[in-house]
Please model this.
Amino acid sequence: MAHRSILVVDVTPGKRDEAIKAFIDRGIISECADAIPAFVSGRVWASDINPDRLNVECDWSEEQGWHDWIASPVRAKQMEDLGHYVAKVVQSEVFAPVDIT
Model:
């Protein structure tokens, strides 16, 4: 069953554009896709309200994919290299779809 993860972070004040560029240059989403077979897609969103907030949403073919990513050495290396941009993790969670029909 498909799942979606939400990662909301506040970046170091005034560094959002730099963080986004570093994220893109590093190929964060591509690295995740290469490392985790259950990865489907990912997007980054910039807040219109908070100039230092980013939201990363990823879709997974199954919940275990998100858990595998959280434990992945590839993710750990990304955090080692780019974690200095993260001032605070606001939310990190995985969600299952709800049938509302």
